[in-house]
Amino acid sequence: MKREVSPFVVSPVYAEFVEASNHETATQSESKYMRETVDFLLRDWLKIESLTSRPRFADHSHETFSAVLDTAETIANEKYAPFNRTVDVDEPHTETNADGTLRVILPRATHEAWRAYAESGMLAAAQDYELGGMQLPYVVEAAANMFFSRASISISWALLTTGNANAIMAHGTRAQKDVFAKNEFAGRWAGTMCLSEPQAGSSLSDVATRAVLDDESDPLGPRYRLFGNKMWISGGEHDVTENIVHLVLAKIPDTDGKLVPGTRGISLVIVPKVLVDERGALVERNDVVLAGLNHKLGWRGTPNTLLNFGEGKFKPLGKAGAVGYLVGKPGDGLRCMFHMMNEARIGIGLAAAMLGMAGYEASLQYAKDRKQGRPITGAGKDASKPPVALIEHADIKRMLLAQKSYCEGATALLLYCAKLVDETHTGEAATAADAKLLLEVLTPIAKSWPSENCLEANSLAIQIHGGYGYTRDFPVEQYWRDNRLNMIHEGTHGIQAMDLLGRKVVMEGGKGLTLLATTINETIQRAFHVPELATHAQSLARALQHVGAATKSAWSTGNPNEALANAVPYMQAFGHMVMAWVWLDVALCFARDPHRHPSPRLEGEGAFREGKRAACNYFFAYEVPKIEAWLAVVRSRDMTCANVSADAL
Amino acid sequence: MKREVSPFVVSPVYAEFVEASNHETATQSESKYMRETVDFLLRDWLKIESLTSRPRFADHSHETFSAVLDTAETIANEKYAPFNRTVDVDEPHTETNADGTLRVILPRATHEAWRAYAESGMLAAAQDYELGGMQLPYVVEAAANMFFSRASISISWALLTTGNANAIMAHGTRAQKDVFAKNEFAGRWAGTMCLSEPQAGSSLSDVATRAVLDDESDPLGPRYRLFGNKMWISGGEHDVTENIVHLVLAKIPDTDGKLVPGTRGISLVIVPKVLVDERGALVERNDVVLAGLNHKLGWRGTPNTLLNFGEGKFKPLGKAGAVGYLVGKPGDGLRCMFHMMNEARIGIGLAAAMLGMAGYEASLQYAKDRKQGRPITGAGKDASKPPVALIEHADIKRMLLAQKSYCEGATALLLYCAKLVDETHTGEAATAADAKLLLEVLTPIAKSWPSENCLEANSLAIQIHGGYGYTRDFPVEQYWRDNRLNMIHEGTHGIQAMDLLGRKVVMEGGKGLTLLATTINETIQRAFHVPELATHAQSLARALQHVGAATKSAWSTGNPNEALANAVPYMQAFGHMVMAWVWLDVALCFARDPHRHPSPRLEGEGAFREGKRAACNYFFAYEVPKIEAWLAVVRSRDMTCANVSADAL
Question: Which residues in A323-350 are b (16+ Cβ under 10 Å) and which e?
């Protein structure tokens, strides 16, 4: 594998230094650490082999799961990791076509990565065999996708196509599945999700794109004409594939030609970039036109677009308006789109966790390689001794252990949630219902917690590198920039918090929260019996009790203004409690439980075991105390922020 | 003033939106908010007019101080703010000279900003009248510089020249002052500080640049020949001025030709880019050559260089080695350089605070302009109503109030420290000694606290902008990138923490900490008498007591390994305690104290007063509880991090 040469270095002295220093980080994707961690979590913690006893996964085994991860790792190492800086520097740009429209130019690496990913079958990994799929559990698909995200988050945009095709599979007609979803699973076409508009970011109520009925009897579904603008559309224009399938949220006007206010009036429409016939053959250009590219802080390899629908550049089928085909029923658009939301949000959490992981591995390697400073001793520092590796300093270890606890913890939580997705699809009725409920409660955490904390991990990775971390000759600054998006897209931090405290913990009379508490309590009970974990079990029990009490206090007046004024601090506290539970549960894998035989695989792995235990101890000593600090304002329904007048700010 | 047009916008629809949205943020530097805040802090809180009773400042008055701030504000608005994005995009780059050396190309705006700054007299603001200075108090100089930092941190590198010249004024010979410092104060030449080397970032013990005696009797000081490389040198090469005065840390070899290990052997040497005669006329090129530019994450407008000294490109005065003139005594280099360290570190804190302030103002304006979503009511959201401004949402207000409390609080602390600098220079003996001690204890906080918390403020400013904040069409992403440097340069976060817990709070038997505690207690006592502040006074008293106890616990075994293992969490807790004190003291300006007449100027300013009180309340409700969370590991001397083995990570 050829190492990418930094496009920035100009000095021979500096170049030599950089070459010597980041040799390992440049090839970090070949490190064993990430794979070992994923293997451990899937096998020893989540015990996913048990899924193979279910009919859908009957052909699978530990070996087939491993083979999928092997393939993902190989492609990620060869086609993604070496080009992560390339796609950041050689940002998507536009050129003008002969017809006056703009086309998006992407680096060759992006095309090749798409091809390799599609050829691996990953686009259809979870689909039925007859659709060309592998019938993989979602948890294995998610684990495999981790390797791509970690290697290059912004080359990893194929996930959007899978999500798009999954939505069509769930709600589309037979013809829509055959024509659109199948071609997406095959990698022939790509897909997008078109929700936001320039004037209405998070507020879908205010969607203004109109879908006017054109022909009810089109074989591809009721045909509409769309007019409007869509903003923040990832992969909205490119020539990586011959066609792009846009899934668009639009409103169908009522008989007076007016749009229904709110989200009830929203419908879901398939709008292909190029119109196709019933066999999927390309026919003519649709009126979906690139209006501009967003120039982002990070995540630059993924083209992010503003699209105009039906502005008049083309007259598809001889008439004005972009041609689209309704999916599901009119007005049912949000439900159809949100069907995929849990998985989409787990995907964001995964992206955040993997950016964190990439930064952790890079800074770990740097800390081992770079010699600087001397340890403190009672007698002061002895400057005549040679400098030691950075990793010998306590504060560097603190920053490494913090990253490890955030990123491995997040990875564990996300794989746990991914397994819950499998339970909802293939578990027995009662298990499936519980899994669905638990997933509802955990999804805002799975999305928000890694977005916030693995971003902080990336900042620590920069800090460990010192000044070098602040340069573009080392990979960590890019991870930090890339990761900043995750608190924004797929529902901002604030929206996740409202979802958690305003909906998820109170729905069905608090049934979801109760189920989570029961699940956490099971872990606490087991840990109470393990001498070295009993104190942590106590801390977690206290945290659980305090989060429960704060939930009650928040809602005690029944006034949503008061309850939700501090939804974000609530979510931060809740997230840390969940992560403490995850770490305690993971640590139990290594516990010397007199009532339980530890897995033979986990015996004797000294450093591996020490690392997990240290990360768990770190989380309880350094992080769990923050829960109380966040809950203070929730408990007291503090209205300092909610009540301050705009003029006073 | 012409508004800078974004170089990124390509779509007319988008361009219109951006134009409409960031009109105000683009001209944010003209907002009154920052000036009002600085005026209030200087006049009503710090009461700096009292300084005019001192002989050195006898010519000054409220009016002359205001005139300086007016000038700074005007130049910053006209010559800095409009080009902050320009210097980020049009990054410094190199071209090759006829003689094979590299020159650095900077945008025209950088040249013009330098000229305007120099012509305003700011470079010599605090100097004696006879040196062409204004004999301004340092606190006024610092306040004036805030406007430049806020307008464009990376155009604001003239501060380095002032710092350099100040060091020469403090330790140089008459000739060195006349030739080098004077030309720097006049803006004819620029200055740098050359400490770090590629192999030894923070570890000055390992400086390897050699200074070999050449001629003891040079009129510009003992002449040495320098050989070595210096890394991270801001302003190390450019043609903004006709010459550059490098202040270089180097080691003079002993009689065996060996360098003394440790920092004791370090000397301070003036190395001009172009050699000059005793009248300051340029003579010939010195052997200081640009080896390369660092390509940074942010702060891109300031060229940051790797310099080679004496590598043989030139033979100044006919011999090998860069020519330099010793400042002070051999081996006294660190002391001479660190003489300026408190002010340099206050400068970093100011940079961080002003980047925070710029982001706060931009996001405040955006939150007022941007309509999105609807408020929560008991009856749910009414989608038929028009969307409200973002600032109507509680969580947006929370993010604004957090920024306000961080950035105004940091500004207040830094001005407080700047006034301490004046006390050390012009106060009566006892006051000066106390001020010096207090400044020693507060400096690590003044540097680290804004670096960490105003960076977080910038992240919140992005969050308020949503997706737009993640694009380069809005200013906030740049502030965040720029601000990330401040935890790294002038002593990393970890180094500040070791300085605080390892040196400052224990020096002279804890005298500095005792003095700080006494100072904080005075505020607590006053606040106890003010009904609306009594609870905060209690919280602060508790925090002070806990920080004191944690300091004792940390050192209770006398083992520095144990004491310092958690120096960073200690510094975080300590910093929050200091900031709580600052806010309580600021709030006292507005207090309805039955024993005290509030300033008439503070009467009736409803919104201004409400804002300060809300920020203070925010800090006590949301931030102060974190102190306990950080102290937990300090108190218990937790060794989880210090003891983990490198293999386990």
Answer: bbbbbbebbbbbebbebbbbbbbbbbbb
